[in-house]
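Subject — a protein and its fold
Encoding — discrete vocabulary of local shapes:
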Amino acid sequence: MFAVTAARIDADDPLAGLELGEHAEPAPPDGWTTVTVKAASLNHHDVWTLRGVGISPDRLPIVLGCDAAGLDSDGNEVVVHAVIANPDAGGGDETLDPGRSLLSERYDGTFAQRVAVPRRNLVPKPAALSFEQAACLPTAYLTAYRMLFGRARLEPGATVLVQGAGGGVATALILLGRAAGYRIWATSRSEAKRDRAVALGADQAFSGPRWGPGTSSGGCCGSASRPASAR
């Protein structure tokens, strides 16, 4: 089958380690199944892999890609949840498993015609979403959802600051925050990205340095975004 793989690590020229071509068909173990990929989304995580961040050379070659939407072995339209973990290790929350990984870290990822995933990682695709739209949801939107509705503990009407408004997580934060009724402020050094943030639903967009304590950059989907302040 055709696949896009990380064949080598090159911190200075990550695309030098990218290879496109034939790859072995997935062989799913017990409890896993094969998904025929209809669409996959690009995350900054894929560039990090090619740079050698979070992966060692002995794991190469490995198929890149975290997220996908496609058809399971029974022909059902599904979205692939990318976190591979033991659901019992975190008391039922597999994202707390210290041994968790994303697809394309220990197991081949989604930039292929077919990918093997645990059956419990398949979510029915909403009929209203295209495969392309659904493939953009898992990592970015789950990260943003947890930030807003788990860790931030925001009250209705709170102000959320989204720093670095151009990435996938930032986009999800703006859309989810707006839908929840929060006031959204966004920052970006790019005028075009500031305009897009407002078009997506941000109340205001600003240019300038990072604001607020404890902010971070380069989230898993290539954005510099997290709620930094709420009031």
Confidence is low (pLDDT under 50) at residues 213-231. The two ends are 52 Å apart (CA to CA). Residues 2-136 form a domain with the Quinone Oxidoreductase; Chain A, domain 1 fold (CATH 3.90.180.10). The chain has five helices and 13 strands.
